[in-house]
Design a protein that fits this description.
327 residues; alpha/beta; Peroxisomal Thiolase, Chain A, domain 1; 2 domains; 4-stranded mixed beta sheet; 10 helices; 13 strands; globular; binds oxa(dethia)-CoA
């Protein structure tokens, strides 16, 4: 009697942004000893977008945010929280979320970045969900944006073929209608050595090219742990939402490798027709990948209101995170 209705965080609109420049596998064949055949068969990637000189994470995140706000018909001044998942901030501080906030004209609301590597956007969504459920926030902008290619060593074929730049965003609103049903966030810093960038302000930089800024990745090991971890994450998320595999309409996974995505789809007993794949055109855009895939799925009309979406990501840390939501 007189029960207060539950408050959900509901996605009211999505947006995304990509740099203009397309770099194909054939382009990379000219700079490292690789082949289109190797890249496509091992990763599913055909091409990626690369930010122009001077084009930053904040530029891409801002454009994605504007697209989401326009689609939501929400003014920036109505936003009371901005969270940006990124590993490639424009500058060390202020946070890129603050830079985007100012450009949007949303000054005054809380704004901060989350660094959870490739899981950054899903982590940010999980945090935003808690702010809305607690009654602290009513309209939240959650962004995932990266210029990961700035960290890439273009002489190293093991990594340079894998990454791209891009951003996606969602506007979340407090609602009595279901939206986010469950989020699961995890990390295990014990895996640091398998995927990391070893330099920084406090640890210091080196005399190596690009001051030692470079992605170190043990690809095969990361692959194995990712598949296993995502397998159990999917089970945990379904249980948290009280849902069966068959009730999930779309899987919107982190776009690192088509073979990892296929393994997760198999675990969910889902055909690839119900999986959103953008890795072929975007490569791995880290925190940008899940919201980019979501926006593409929404704008192409595949994802419809009332459908259940499972979002998941895995990245350096290791971090892994998921969100099960009714769109
Ligand atoms: O987003 C966050 C997490 N990141 C990931 O999820 C990435 C996870 N890992 C992967 O996606 C895959 O492990 C990779 C795509 C990175 C690599 O695929 P793989 O099937 O695990 O290949 P591998 O590392 O075992 O390498 C196989 C061979 C090696 O040669 P040998 O030792 O067999 O002679 C590599 O040197 O392929 C060689 N190789 C390449 N050949 C052509 C590695 N990179 C390339 C390349 N072109 N770009």
């Amino acid at each position: 009697m007189g029960d207060k209705a539950l408050t959900y965080a509901r996605i009211i609109a999505t947006g995304s942004a990509l740099p203009e420049r397309v770099v194909t596998n054939a382009d990379l064949e000219k700079i490292v000893d690789t082949s289109d055949e190797w890249i496509r068969s091992r990763t599913g990637i055909r091409e990626r977008r690369i930010a122009a000189d001077g084009e930053t994470t904040g530029d891409l995140g801002y454009r994605a945010a504007i697209a989401a706000l326009e689609a939501a018909d929400v003014k920036a001044s109505e936003i009371d929280l901005i969270i940006l998942g990124t590993t490639t901030p424009d500058i060390i501080f202020p946070s890129t979320a603050c830079l985007i906030q100012h450009r949007l004209g949303a000054n005054g609301c809380a704004a901060f970045d989350i660094n959870a590597a490739c899981s950054g956007f899903v982590y940010a969504l999980g945090v935003a969900d808690k702010f809305i459920r607690s009654g602290q926030s009513k309209k939240v902008l959650v962004i995932g944006a990266e210029t990961l290619t700035r960290m890439v060593d273009w002489n190293e074929r093991e990594t340079c073929v894998l990454f791209g730049d891009g951003a996606g965003a969602v506007v979340l609103e407090a609602s009595e209608e279901p939206g986010i049903l469950a989020t699961c966030l995890h990390a295990d810093g014990g895996f640091k050595e398998l995927l990391y960038n070893p330099v920084g302000v406090s640890a210091g930089f080196t005399d190596e090219p690009n001051h030692g800024v470079r992605i170190h990745m043990s690809g095969r090991e990361v692959f194995k742990v990712a598949v296993k971890t995502l397998d159990s994450l999917v089970g945990e998320t379904l249980a948290a939402a009280g849902m069966e595999e068959s009730e999930v309409d779309w899987l919107i996974p982190h776009q690192a490798n088509l073979r990892i995505i296929e393994a997760t789809a198999k675990r969910l007993k889902m055909s690839m027709e119900r999986v959103i794949v953008t890795v072929d055109r975007h490569a791995n855009t880290s925190s940008g990948s899940v919201p980019l895939a979501l926006d593409e799925a929404v704008r192409s009309g595949r994802v419809k209101r009332g459908q259940n979406l499972l979002l998941e990501a895995f990245g350096g840390g290791f971090t892994w995170a998921s969100a099960l939501l009714k769109y």
